[in-house]
Specification:
Structural class: mainly beta
Shape: elongated
Strand order of the largest sheet: 1-3-4-5-6-11-12-13
Largest sheet: 8 strands, antiparallel, barrel
Radius of gyration: 42 Å
Number of helices: 1
């Protein structure tokens, strides 16, 4: 275990020494919540929602304004209380070789288990600015937990009543302390046999800007154990010879997989260069040093506002964020395609860009005036919209068939002479 600790500390120290550029942060936090060993007693109960604590120091490096990695070192404290109410029986023999059952009756017997784990995490982080002085940050990954302190201690509450039952005479001996049969209210303590643990971890919290390089953090944490950290035992909790082994050393508990969740607070300290416009990109790398607040969260790795559809209007101003490439150069200040002649067909599609206002409502999908009866006169000018095909070529400027002699019968031979 010492070797693992040394390796972890060496790695952390090496990373901290490199934290001299923008995008590097130190993070310190403390917290508390429910820290549960998450084991099940065969005969008894354990405390629900036991309170524990966490202390952490970490280093973060953000590759972009949004994504980064974090590692560090921390500690978690667990404090679990168990209560036993059951009768155990162990077959044995007395000094004269006579067989009997050694009975230990646990009556509200309480034992407390405590442990401190040294944590080495590695998580992927995501952050997003919600405003000039407020951001959200989330982390997910895993950690290694090394038990550096693990002990049990009885509380002095409850009792163990030991007796000897001789089945051959149907006799139970009690209150004979010289033979190990007595009422025991003593306190005991000892070490727990815990192994290195591995856990999935996740955090979610908020960053409140205190100064140019300092943020206050508050958020929640959740750690879920992935392996059994207990070395299972088969000993009796309390032996005939008076030795107390503890609950976790007995067959009463098979698995211990710690789970913890709660709230923590702390500080994020930015290292390296300044970020004058507060967009999350250091001034050294920022090619757009005056990013407006409205663009926070919508910038690229160079600190410039994103323009996803490439229409020349940054996303934070763009009301038409999926402008097709054919419309590039033909959009308004809000990033929406122009329609200069107001005919309902965007300019990048309009093959008749100067449609007169009288034709609005009478254009096709290309933005050109319609001529439904194909007489050569646009519908918006056509006073005879249903000119028959036979009359084509003998119509006037209003789209109506010509009647040279005004007799009410249209010319038919197209010679301009009345029939």
């Amino acid at each position: 275990m010492k070797k693992q600790i040394i390796i972890g500390l060496s790695l952390l120290t090496s990373i901290f020494m490199q934290a001299q550029e923008a995008g590097h942060y130190l993070h310190f936090n403390v917290g508390g919540g429910v820290h549960d060993f998450s084991y099940k007693l065969q005969n008894g109960t354990k405390q629900n929602n036991p309170v524990g604590y966490t202390f952490n120091a970490a280093y973060s490096y953000f590759f972009s304004p949004y994504i980064g990695l974090q590692t560090g070192i921390g500690a978690q404290y667990f404090n679990q209380l168990s209560t036993l109410n059951y009768l155990s029986t162990t077959a044995t023999t007395d000094e004269l070789g006579r067989a009997y059952d050694f009975r230990a009756n646990y009556k509200n017997w309480e034992e407390n288990q405590q442990a401190i784990f040294l944590d080495i995490p590695l998580v992927l982080q995501f952050r997003h600015k919600l405003g000039e002085n407020l951001g959200i940050i989330a982390s997910a990954g895993g950690k290694v937990s090394l038990p550096v302190y693990s002990k049990f201690k009885t509380t002095g509450n409850g009792e163990i009543v030991t007796t000897g039952y001789y089945s051959q005479w149907n006799t139970e001996l009690s209150d004979l302390p010289q033979y190990g049969f007595s009422t025991n209210k003593n306190t005991y303590e000892g070490n727990l046999a815990l192994k290195t643990g591995y856990a999935a971890i996740a955090d979610l919290g908020f960053l409140f800007k205190l100064s140019e390089k300092t943020d206050f953090y508050i958020g929640g944490y959740f750690n879920y154990g992935l392996n059994n950290i207990l070395t299972p035992g088969t000993k009796e909790i309390y032996q005939r010879d008076g030795i107390y082994n503890g609950i976790l050393a007995s067959s009463q508990v098979k698995n211990v997989t710690p789970v913890s969740f709660g709230v923590k607070v702390g500080l994020y300290l930015q290292m390296g260069k300044k970020d004058a416009d507060k967009d999350g990109v250091s001034d050294k790398k920022d090619k757009c040093p005056n990013t407006p607040v409205a663009a926070f969260g919508l910038i690229d790795i160079n600190g410039c506002p994103l323009d996803t559809d490439g229409d020349g209007i940054p996303d934070y101003l763009d009301k038409c964020s999926t402008t097709p490439k054919e419309a590039v150069g033909k959009v308004d200040s809000l990033g929406c395609p122009l329609d200069a002649d107001k005919d309902g067909v965007f300019d990048y599609l309009d093959k008749c860009p100067s449609t007169p206002k009288e034709a609005i409502g009478y254009v096709d999908q290309d933005g050109c005036p319609l001529d439904a009866d194909k007489d050569g006169v646009f519908d918006y000018l056509d006073k005879c919209p249903n000119t028959p095909a036979e009359a084509k070529g003998t119509i006037d400027t209003n789209g109506c068939p010509i009647d040279s002699d005004k007799d009410g019968v249209a010319d038919s031979d197209k010679d301009g002479v009345s029939d």
